[in-house]
Amino acid sequence: MKVITLKYNSIILDEPDYLCNTLSVMKVLLLASLTVDGLIGRHNLHLANWSSAEDKQFFVKTTKKAGTIIMGSNTFDTIGKPLPGRKTILYAKEPEKYVYDNVETTSEDPKLLIKRLNLQGVKTVVICGGASIYNYFMSSGVVDELYLTIEPVIFGEGLRLFSSELNINLTLISVKKINQNTILVHYKVNK
Ligand SMILES: NC(=O)c1ccc[n+]([C@@H]2O[C@H](COP(=O)([O-])OP(=O)(O)OC[C@H]3O[C@@H](n4cnc5c(N)ncnc54)[C@H](OP(=O)(O)O)[C@@H]3O)[C@@H](O)[C@H]2O)c1
Fold first, then answer.
1. pLDDT tens by residue, 108-156
2. Percent of the chain scored above 70 by pLDDT?
3. Higher pLDDT among residues 62 and 22, named by residue
């Protein structure tokens, strides 16, 4: 996939670095679909099916490439079953409700979880939401990169991507128009 990478004042074509197979350091990616007014859903059990086909393709490709995804139980409940071909680490306070192949429940501190996955040899992990999990991981300082798809819709009211005070600076890596009305923005977290 080609993306437009902004480098100083010039624009070059480049491959996104999450596709690199030779990463020696684990990467924590956060993927989210946003409305133009910065919301990720209308309510806690809103099925995240309102984003474009191109966004869904990007999500599937990126999460399958990573192999390990992290989500909260409300998001899992809206989907209703594990996403195939990926290991799901599921934040749930009632783990007995979520007994599936390839699903591991947890309530670990994000830093400890990421350290454990790193030790287990995981190279890339994707934070898939919802609102409480995005906020939990972003405020824990473990997120390395964000891929935000901005869809041409406005909800007016709903769930924000982050919901606590944060002080995080980002570097813009690339902006890609993925269809007539939708852009995918890739940021690196400055650490
Ligand atoms: N636009 C997007 O890209 C996108 C992506 C994903 C989701 N979403 C949207 O996000 C919304 C859901 O977000 P949400 O905040 O309500 O739910 P969520 O983050 O998916 O899950 C919240 C649940 O995770 C569990 N949890 C959270 N922290 C935990 C901890 N420290 N230990 C153990 N369990 C923990 C709790 O489960 P228990 O209830 O079991 O205690 C909590 O109720 C939906 O509208 C969905 O469509 C949007």
1. 999 999 999 999 999 999 999 999 999 999 999 999 999 999 999 999 9
2. 87
3. 62
102 domain-assigned: yes
- Cα(41)–Cα(46) distance, integer angstroms: 6
Does any domain span residue 131?
Answer: yes
What pTM was computed for the model?
0.90
Q: How many domains does the chain have?
A: 1
Q: What is the pLDDT of residue 20?
A: 42
Residue from 74, 137, 157 to probe ligand 1 pocket by mutation (most atoms less than 8 Å from CB): 74
**Cβ of residue 48 lying under 6 Å from some atom of ligand 1:** yes
Residue 3 lies in a domain: no
Looking at this protein, which amino acid is placed at residue 127?
I
Q: Give distance in angstroms: CA of 11 to centre of ligand 1.
A: 37
The answer to the question of residue 181 being in a domain is yes
Residue 32 lies in domain: 25-189
Residue 166: other Cβ atoms inside 10 A: 10
Taking the C-alpha atoms of residue 145 and residue 18, their distance in angstroms, rounded to an integer, is 9
